[in-house]
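My current task is to audit a protein record that another person submitted. Alongside the sequence sits a line of tokens, each denoting a local backbone shape. Where you disagree with what is written, explain briefly why. This is what I was given:
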Amino acid sequence: MTPAPHRSHTDDLLSFIAASPSPYHVVASAAQRLEKAGFRELRGTDDWTGATGGLFVSRAGALIAWYVPEDAPAHTPFRIVGTHTDSPNLRIKPAPDTGTAGWRQIGVEIYGGVPLNTWLDRDLGISGRLALRGPDGVPRSRLVQIDEPLLRVPQLAIHLDRSVNEGVALDRQRHIAPIWALGDPREGELVRRVAADAGEDPADVLGWDLMLHDIQPPGYLGVDREFVVASRLDNQVSVHAGVTALVDAATGSTQPAFIPVLAAFDHEEVGSGSETGAQSPLLERILSRSVSARGGGDEDWSRALAGAFCVSADMAHAVHPNYSERHDPDHCPLPNGGPTIKVNVNQRYATDSTGIAMFTAAAERVGAPWQPFVSNNAMPCGTSIGPLTAARLGVTTVDVGVPGLSMHSARELCGVSDPGYLAAILATIMVGD
């Protein structure tokens, strides 16, 4: 387990995470990298007829990208990497300005499975997007990223709560409004501050999707800097690996034998049930339209799916040294031991032996290690977009992920080599060597 092979990949990952504090920024960061590699964005209202090469469609916090080799038949099978762009966090309410006892505060709502104690006493910025009044009455969108220590959720001093170390849970409703100034709340103050930072007139703000993020930059940890520590490793590790793999597949010396696809969905952490989530028809419609754009019909679409394969890539649990009894004793993945293959016979993961064989064969070709993962039978098993994609498209799917600690925390940890191992395996699967 050496941390050396993929340090340059991880350096690039840290830059990606620092630039991507919200799902909308993740999409923008991915799109920027794709465009640099020669991909072009398609709009839903465009004519896609005959479109080849690198292509992508973005919608809010979701991105679907694919590469069509020249003269690829309409029935060419897909090689799909599925990921998600969102991470658990605190999201700002529609009427955010609040306060008590002489403090100005911001009302937030809990998004996803947040270990709330990890958000206490951290310096927090604001990110997301503003919906703005545009020309001719057509709304426009503007990304916002304020990497300044504006807010903080202060923990109650131990002198005032002697039970704090006894596992008492934070009251989810009453004690999570971050402080950001002294004085009575002023209606519209938050919007004025965010709009000013974006260089926009507050009067043009019609709505927003704003959230808080830890402003501590990502970095390395350990005696030999063998660990990565950052916010939003779940699941930006996989998005970044998927983008890297797709670019490698599209620009490598060997033309892909398949249509490589990256599907980065939003809202996985809350069930994927949105227009940009894995339960939506977004991926299905885009892939079907790509077949039609190359002159294919229903038979070509069916053939392309019949030969398709999907890798659902999401962070996995490394064995925790202080809670090893919570893990299956025979399945204890460690950082820098390679990506895990996740198995659950109750289909919380979509992996079967065929998917395992496809993934491990690719790992062997690039010399990458891998590790099996099964949840402890006594513990509930998590899930990802794999079962949703498998059920919706009817394609063979394997669930995999980089093992890490502190999942869903405001600051997570993984091994320095595993993200690069994952990207190399995904690129091999996409190309089909």
